Amino acid sequence: MGAPRGPDAFSAGFLIGLLVGEGHFGGDGRQPQVTLRMHVRHEKLFRWLEHVFPEGRLYGPYHHGGRDYYQWMARGDFLRRRLVPLVREHLPRLDDYAAARFRSMCDRYRLEPAGEPRPEPRESRRGGRRS
To answer: N or C: which end of the chain has fewer CB within 10 A?
Structure first.
């Protein structure tokens, strides 16, 4: 079985637009994650995400605190090998705020352009860190 085919240009652009406008680039302290949370009235959009990006995970609908929403998450190999490279490819077109949020997640979780984790810095013989 071959590598998964990438999304078409519309799908890639639409997802990136959603993530820039409504997404969260972060993590739980142990692993990176990208989250998209929106009102249940956008269910059709979330079903499209499930179809086009099946490696992501859809949760909900949730109903609490007067809010009704779905939450789509990207983690693990899908995030590292597909989503991070996709967003990074379009990074020059993102606004500064969204680009900074994305870079912060990549730095915090040591994500490289190809989605591979960066190696940990080695300790020198004197106890200092080397890159």
So the answer is: N
11: left (phi over 0), alpha (psi -120 to 50) or beta: alpha
Give the count of domains, the chain: 1
Is the pTM higher than 0.90? The answer reads no
pLDDT in tens, 66-90: 999 999 999 999 999 999 999 999 9
| CA distance to 23, 33, 34, 93, 97, per residue, from 120 (Å) | 28, 20, 22, 30, 27
Q: Does 11 reside within a domain?
A: no
- Structural domain for 110, as ranges: 23-118
CATH number of residue 59's parent domain: 3.10.28.10
Phi–psi pair at 78, nearest 5 degrees: -60, -45
